[in-house]
Amino acid sequence: MSEITQEQVTHLANLARIALTPEEIVSLTSELGSIMDHVATVTEVATPDVPATSHPIPLQNVFRDDVVGQTLTAEEALAGAPDHDGSRFRVTAILGEEQ
Question: According to the lineage, what is the superkingdom (predicted)?
């Protein structure tokens, strides 16, 4: 089993700002060790002669070409807006910003 310590798990939890109980630290130490062992196994199997795979099924782009079509004028776009200043939507200030 990989050498993941409870101190390392506690350090990672602190970095991630996650509060863990002592029982969770013990459990995660075991689980992370198991994950590290699996990663090591995959690393051993992945040799340079094995091509990298991003997806098991070959994919192709199924989107249509991006073609400019008919667009709205500013007046048409703002026609149904609850509030605007003539050329832009007006929205309530957020994040403590002053108007």
Answer: Bacteria
